Amino acid sequence: MDIRVKAKNTEVTEAVKETAATKLAKLERYFRGLLDIEVELGEERNPRVSRRQVVEVTIRTKGPLVRARAAAEDWAGALDMVVDKLQRQLEKVKGRIVEAPRHHSSPISPNSHLLEGEEGEPLSRVVRVKRFELKPMTTEEAIQEMELLGHDFFFFRSSETGRYAVLYRRRAGGLGLIEGSG
Predict the structure, then answer these.
(1) What is the rounded CA–CA span in Å between residue 53 and residue 172?
(2) What is the rounded distance in angstroms from the CA atom of residue 27 to the CA atom of residue 88?
(3) pTM of the model as a whole
C-alpha cells in the first residue's frame, strides 16, 4: 500500500508527515483492500477560523473511493479525527461487501447501477428512486426551494435556459450550479 503525504498552503515538518503515514497505515487492519492513500495537510488562511489545521485523505480501495476531511486547532487533533472518520467509513464499506451476497433475492430494476467487486459481487445498489415532475424555475426560485427543503443540492429545469441543472452547496462556502445540455 502506497501512502503519499503532501502539504498545501503551509509548511509541514517531516515528523508530522511520518506520524500521518503511521496512523493511516493502521487502517489496513479494518479493510484489506486498500490500494493507496493520499493525504493532504493544509491550513485555513482565514484568521477568524479557530480550527486552522486541515487534513484531507483519499483512499483508493478495490471497491469504492473513501474520503474524509477534518479540521482542528493542531495537526494531531485533525489527524485523529480524520482517522476515526475513515475507520467508520471503511467498516461501512466492509459491511456492505459482506451483506451484499445475502440480498441477491431482492429485485433489481434495469436502471440499478452496480459496482463490481473482485469476483463480480455487487458492492452497492441504488436502494431508493425518487421521481418527480420538474417545473421550470429560475435559479433564484431553485435556491429558495433548496433552502426550504434543507438540502445540500437541488435538481431543476431552468426556465432561463431550458436546461436541466443541479444547484449545490460548496464545501468552501457559496453555491455552485451545474447545467446540462438538452
Answers:
(1) 15
(2) 10
(3) 0.54
Residue 66 corresponds to which amino acid?
V
Query: Distance between CA 6 and CA 39 in Å, rounded?
Result: 6
Q: What is the DSSP string of 98-148?
A: HHGGGGTTS---TT----B-TTS-B-------------EE-HHHHHHHHHH
SS3 (DSSP) at 52: coil
Question: CB–CB of 6/37 below 8 Å?
Answer: no
C-alpha cell at 43: 491550513
pLDDT in tens, the chain (182 residues): 788 888 887 887 888 888 888 888 888 887 777 888 999 998 887 777 777 889 999 888 877 788 899 999 888 899 999 999 988 888 887 777 665 555 554 444 444 444 444 445 555 678 888 887 788 999 998 998 888 777 889 999 999 988 999 999 998 889 999 998 75
Cβ neighbours for 8, distance < 8 A, ≥ 6 positions apart: 40, 41, 42
Distance CA 57, CA 68 (A): 5
For residue 37, give the H/E element and its range. strand 34-43
Number of helices and strands (H, E) in the chain?
3, 8
Instruction: List Cα–Cα distances, 11 to 38, 42, 119, in angstroms.
Output: 17, 9, 43
DSSP 159: T
